[in-house]
Amino acid sequence: MNGPPLAALLTPIGRGAIATIRVSLLGASRPVADVWPFRAANGRPLSAQSVGRIVFGYWGSEPSEEIVLCALDDATLEIHCHGGDAASRRILRDLAAAGCRVVAWPEFLQQTESPLRAEIMGELCRATTLPTAAILWEQANGLFELTVGALVAEAPGNLPAAAARIREWLAWADFGLHLTRPWRVVLAGRPNVGKSSLINAILGYTRCVVFDQPGTTRDVVSAQTAIDGWPIEVSDTAGLRASADPLESAGIERARQTLETADLAVVLIDVSQPASAADRAILAEHRPAIVVAHKCDLVAYEGNDRWQTDETDQWLRVSAKTGVGVEALVAAISLQLIPRVPPPDSLIPLTERHVALLNTALAAAERADTAGLAQSLAALLTGADDPAHSTS
After folding, report:
1. How do 183-188 and 264-270 pair as beta strands?
2. Among 118, 131, 302, 326, which is disulfide-ready with 229 (CB 3.0 to 4.6 Å)?
3. What per-residue confidence (pLDDT) applies to 164?
4. In CATH, what number does 185-337 get?
């Protein structure tokens, strides 16, 4: 692709230790960079620096910026400067004056990467934990594109094998979509069972207001955390009960709606209180779920477990007040949501587009529609939406 060199800030705007600017020469040779106001500490011009060499130097006249520059290949250079906006703005301004076109990072990716890699790199920018970023980087760094490309070449000769391969990929669809969208865990139970206290214990800081008056939580209160490196959103909801208070009733209705779309419901039972029909109704409505025998410290203190029945054998005994059982609950949440992770080198669908196209490709393979299969896989590689093809 020809045109003026492109430059983009790849790191977020705002304070930071290091800012990264990438420049794509778009077919121009590296001597065009010799007009930049950069002085390498080794005294050599940029065009003479070898690819992959990390070069320390100074940008601009006094006061100059200390930077590190590296040619990633013959057409791509990366500049690392002090974090914050001032240094990066100055360098981008100078690059523009030297003939570069400064663009936002999404446009930079679209102009310099394949459509599929640009799409996955965009997803990578939304990762919030190191394990999710590592998986997304592996997919972006050739695994996804090469794996699909290999199937394009192999599929016409063995459609049943192609269908089996696509099923394997789709088995990780829910996992892949959650790499950039947290798994949603919702705490449910009657008023005053300690949902707010428990969410604070899980998060490790006070996020929810705790008060011994039933109905304190009137809305869904959510916070994000990471469990075993996986992004989790934990929500505290209004206590489930019949209420004449319009405000509380609205909160309860919102709680029920949140529970319907949750990846996991954690039902709290206050085992220091007698069993009630309301508790049993909540348990029946939200199975399967993790059930927490909450306030177990009060039970131990009183020596009176009012829920001593066979049904409590699988419940987790937890006390948000003392911390007993909180780690076991966190481990149970992780196991329930992510019982297994993909083996190395597994292709993982990462977006709704990927999932839709792979489902279309699977249907084509199952009906021996070679052309339809090829079209769907080609659309996956080129960033297109689900193609129209014959269903005969």
Report:
1. parallel
2. 131
3. 97
4. 3.40.50.300
